[in-house]
Amino acid sequence: MTLTIGVHSSNPSLYHLYHLSRLGFAQEELAPLGETVVFHPYTNGARTGELLTSGVIDFGGTGSTPPITAQAAGHDIVYTAVSAPRPEHGVLLVPEESPVRTVADLKGSTVHLAIGSWQTHLIAKALDDAGLSYAADITAVRSTDDSERLVRTGEIAAWVAQGERLAAARRTGGLRTLIRTGDVISDRSVFFTRRDLAESRPDVIEALTRALRRADEWAAAHPRRAAEIASADLGGSADDWETALETLPWTIEPVTDAFIAEQQEAADIFHRTGFIDRPVTVDHARARKAADQAV
């Protein structure tokens, strides 16, 4: 069997696993199980549930929002692992001289963010905590390469920045952090697959998790080389990428009740504000035990 791993640049663990595959990462873990590994690069992590269901990929990873929207769309996914929290992964930026001092001050404003990514979770929960609605109280617009300029000129009120773009913006100065990711959500990388694979081949899932841990250990031990890979492939300076990558925990953890509760809170907010059109029970995205499958 050939296992297809989905990879996109927004998931750092899978991104570096992909680039390390030439060194045998992933294949060494899967070969003893009679599996071969190929990678399927794509750009929009929000499509991961669709790609799993259609059989284009067998395994993927994103931030916190795409698996919830995948469940809402009827995709039968199963969580397999998560990263440790990433409190410094991103921030909501406003101009230094902006009158916006709290999230509540954003009411009626335009905010740029990567809609459908973990950034939606961040903004929706921050607004919810302030008694506001993601759907009703701000205008959420998808970020572009022009977002930094627009927030600096005051044409938009705020911008969610992450990674090397955040490092570059901070280096330039002139922007202020309104909220930090870790003050609102845990912001984990999340890994998931189709139910049939999760329940029929737990050995494969365990091997993939080991491969992710190896890739994370390599990135943590070689931050400059990891930064150079990202810079050459995605643009931006290696210095800014190194700054960004050094904020990540590079730790893969099991799916816990606490994580499921975090996701359920996000799902409830998304449904209440209309970001998803039906309620989601996050706990359904767990693998069933063998005894339960037999019933």
UniProtKB/TrEMBL annotation:
This chain belongs to which protein, by name? ABC transporter substrate-binding protein
The record, for InterPro entries, names: Solute-binding_3/MltF_N (IPR001638), SsuA/THI5 (IPR015168)
| Entry's family note | Belongs to the bacterial solute-binding protein SsuA/TauA family.
Solute-binding protein family 3/N-terminal domain boundaries: 2-222
The beginning of the lineage is: Bacteria, Bacillati, Actinomycetota, Actinomycetes, Kitasatosporales
Tell me the superkingdom of the source: Bacteria
Q: Give the organism the record lists.
A: Streptomyces brevispora
